[in-house]
Write a structure and sequence with these properties.
Layout: H1 2-26, E1 32-35, E2 38-41, E3 44-46, H2 48-54, H3 64-107, H4 113-155, E4 157-163, E5 166-172
Antiparallel strand pairs: 1-2, 2-3, 4-5
Helix pairs in contact: 2-3, 3-4
Length: about 170
C-alpha cells in the first residue's frame, strides 16, 4: 500500500509540474483597465477597434457596440463640461472688461458701444457656458458609470488554470 501511495504522489507531482508549464502558458487572464475613455490591457493602451473587440464577448453577449456608444457619450460629456466651463470663464472676463471699460467712459463723459457689446457678449457667454457645463456633468457621469460596468463585466470571469499546488478554479472579479 505504501508503494501505491508513493507512486501516486510521484505521478501527481509530475502532472503538477507538467500542468504548470503547459496550462499556465495557455490560460492567461488579462484584465482591462478603463481610464477615462481609454482602455488599457497590461498597461498598454488599446486603440478603439481593439478595445471594441475585447467587448465582443462579455458574458456571452456582444457588447462592442455598447462600448463605442458609451465611449462617444463620455467624450461628449467631457467636451460639454470643459467647453462650457471655458465659455463661462470667457464670459465672466468679457463682462468684467465691459464694466471696467464702461466705468472709464463714464468718468470721461462719453458713451462707447464697445462696453455695451462686451457686457452683452459676456452675459450671453456665461449663460450658454453654464448651461453646457451643467448638461455636461451628468452626461459625463452616466457614461463613465456605463463604461465602468462594461469593465467590471469583462474582468469578472471564471477560469481554470495552474497553481503551485496543481490545477485551480478561480473567480476573478
Amino acid at each position: 500500500m505504501k508503494h501505491y501511495i508513493l507512486l501516486l504522489l510521484v505521478a501527481v507531482f509530475s502532472l503538477n509540474v507538467a500542468a504548470q508549464s503547459t496550462v499556465a502558458d495557455s490560460v492567461a487572464y488579462n484584465p482591462i483597465d478603463i481610464r477615462g475613455s481609454r482602455v488599457f490591457m497590461n498597461d498598454l493602451e488599446l486603440d478603439k477597434n481593439s478595445a471594441a473587440a475585447c467587448f465582443s464577448s462579455v458574458n456571452g453577449l456582444d457588447r462592442s457596440q455598447d462600448y463605442l456608444k458609451y465611449r462617444a457619450g463620455y467624450k461628449t460629456g467631457l467636451g460639454l463640461t470643459v467647453g462650457g466651463a471655458s465659455l463661462a470663464v470667457f464670459g465672466l472676463g468679457s463682462t468684467l472688461f465691459g464694466f471696467v471699460y464702461g466705468l472709464s467712459d463714464a468718468f470721461a463723459n462719453r458713451s462707447d458701444a464697445l462696453a455695451d457689446a462686451a457686457i452683452y457678449l459676456g452675459m450671453g457667454s456665461m449663460v450658454v457656458g453654464s448651461l453646457c457645463f451643467v448638461a455636461g456633468i451628468p452626461t459625463l457621469c452616466v457614461y463613465k458609470t456605463r463604461l465602468n460596468r462594461l469593465e467590471k463585466g469583462y474582468n469578472t470571469s471564471l477560469s481554470i488554470g495552474a497553481s503551485p499546488t496543481g490545477l485551480s478554479l478561480s473567480v476573478n472579479f
